[in-house]
Amino acid sequence: MENPPDQTESKEMMLQPRITRPKGGLLTMPFIIANEGFEKVASYGLLQNMILYLMSDYGLGLVKGQNVLFMWVAATNFMPLVGAFLSDSYLGRFLTISIASLSSFLGMMVLWLAAMLPQVKPSPCVASTVTKCSSTAATSSQLALLYFAFALISIGSGGIRPCSLAFGADQLDNKENPKNERVLESFFGWYYASSSVAVLIAFTVIVYIQDHLGWRIGFGVPAILMLLAGILFVLASPLYVKRNATKSLFTGLAQVAVAAYVNRKLMLPGQNDSYGCYYHLNDSELKAPSDKLRFLNKACVTSNQEEDIGADGLALNPWRLCTTDQVEELKALVKVIPVWSTGIMMSINVSQNSFQLLQANSMDRRLSDHSTFKIPPGSFGMFTIIALIAWVVLYDRAILPLASKIRGKPVRINVKIRMGLGLFISFLAMAVSATVEHYRRRTAISQGLANNATATVNISAMWLVPQYVLHGLAEALTGIGQTEFFYTEFPKSMSSIAAALFGLGMAVANILASVILNVVKNSSKKGGESWIEDNINKGHYDYYYWVLAILSFVNVIYYIVCSWSYGPTMDQLRNDKANGVRGEEHEEAVKLN
To answer: Transmembrane stretches, by residue range (predicted)?
Structure first.
């Protein structure tokens, strides 16, 4: 007896394989970018006006408050290295980002509660003199609660920032796509730009709320945004490509250093027998290490294969014998350190936002003489972000397409050229900052405001815009350039470490910025006053900026040396190889004709 037609068709439909949508791709980008975007809106929105909060509500002086912020920002930028380590080695990127989002939210909640509850904060200072406010100084327990909130936010940033970039690249990275490099380059630029839009919102909307509605609402809004960011990210879990965590990367790097020292007396194998004497895994594409930093090659030399390698093909003692891949990972890290260090000076220059905020606060912030609206002093950082976004859009949508059309082939500006140009622009930014501050201070003194730091100097705050724009261009060139440089130069197993290195540079920069600030303050004291004073009109911030400008110029020369000694990048080597193949094909065609 035959089955009815409808039953037969239903059985055939059940037997057909179910088409499942591949994971990853552009569909996941809104959730990943939104998570980091909300995190940046929250954290940068808190940071921008924080010096005013510490001075007014916690009774801290300018230098002490700025040192607290330097250390907080340093911790925030150092934690991505820890987050990258945990992500790559143990937790995986998805779980790391999820836990970090919870930590950021809890930190912002603690900060909001400190603003809401009068018992956990010093009594309000209603007087304008420091002597009368000294009695309301924060106690150790009150400061401990504040620092605990900062710590939770730093831990959250440490998990989100390095992993989001690499996690997003995981969704798009497809080796079979012939335009994979261009896709990743475009992703890095647009990811950085979208993050910058989030910072722009923080510098405008969040800062405006804090200035006009107070700290309670100003701290509560970032906490709500962080909660929303975490929920959106977790809800999209089924859509993601989730790469499993590998073994401890740092342990592997340490094993290479120890093995190279232990095997220091071994001879490196000759070229003819190199494939038989270097230890590598069966599925590894790297059969022999490179010739650079050759002393590390001894870490993967097999002196006796029967004693060194087990039946499963793994090293019996990984502290005496490492794989060629491990050796190349450490080489890649060591090789980029000089280039990485050149970005520290630019980050020091960018970290001077508290002093620029005081400058803007003392100037006429109206858009015109007939306008009543004043730009909040903490919002001037938006000009940095606008310049950064404008460059990314112009570079990706106008400059490269136009150059490619003119030359008749795809054109890309070498990443090392972009980084060097950004460092030079950072030097120009500090020179402009020093010049503008000299003019502002001279005008304030001529108007009889030397002893009144809170009075408005009759000079437009728009004079500060050029230096902010230059800082934005410097970050667009060097910041994006370094991120792309690390990601392309490192093996894929180190992708999160690559993303964390730029943040680590900012951490080191904030620590050095604190050192430079204290050195300049202590060494410039004359008659009881120094270049760095709470009263910006009595200090000489222009001299301080010139110190940073001179250091920035020296850093440009240092970068040129580091760039030359580094040699060609991976992109340059691939392009040279491709051009060589095309040249050989052309020669063969000529011979045939």
So the answer is: 69-87, 94-114, 144-167, 188-209, 215-241, 375-395, 415-436, 497-520, 543-567
pTM, rounded to two decimals: 0.75
380: Cα separation from own chain's centroid: 21
Composition of the chain by helix, strand, coil, percent to 5:
75, 0, 25
Residue (of 124, 103, 102, 105) closest to 113 by Cα position: 105
| One-letter amino acid for residue 587 of the chain | E
- What is the distance, to the nearest Å, from the Cα of residue 16 to the centroid of all Cα atoms in its chain? 48
Q: Stretch 426-444: mean pLDDT, rounded?
A: 92
Q: How many angstroms separate the CA atoms of 352 and 429, rounded?
A: 12
Report how far residue 374's alpha carbon sits from residue 366's, in angstroms, rounded to the nearest whole number. 4
Centroid of chain to Cα 125: 37
96 contacts 83 by C-beta, under 8 angstroms: yes
Above 90 in pLDDT, residue 2? no
pLDDT at 454 over 80: no
Q: Which residues fall within 8 angstroms of residue 321, CB to CB, at 6 or more apart?
A: 259, 279, 299, 300, 301, 302, 308, 309, 315
| 354 closest CA partner among 78, 40, 65 | 65
